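Review this today:
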Amino acid sequence: HAQDKLKRKKLDFIVLNSLNDTGAGFRHDTNKITIISATENKEYPLKSKSEVAKDIIDELVSRI
């Protein structure tokens, strides 16, 4: 679904939140994401939500 949304909305990248991994998603203080672009998928390990936010900001900055 994320790949389809990326193409349909002509996005540079999309962040996929894992809801299947233990300790990730809603009701937890940690999350596991994958940043998906047209050319690659970057998978990140389970991290605190503030660390995840930093990863997303780093991705944005790398594209400037």
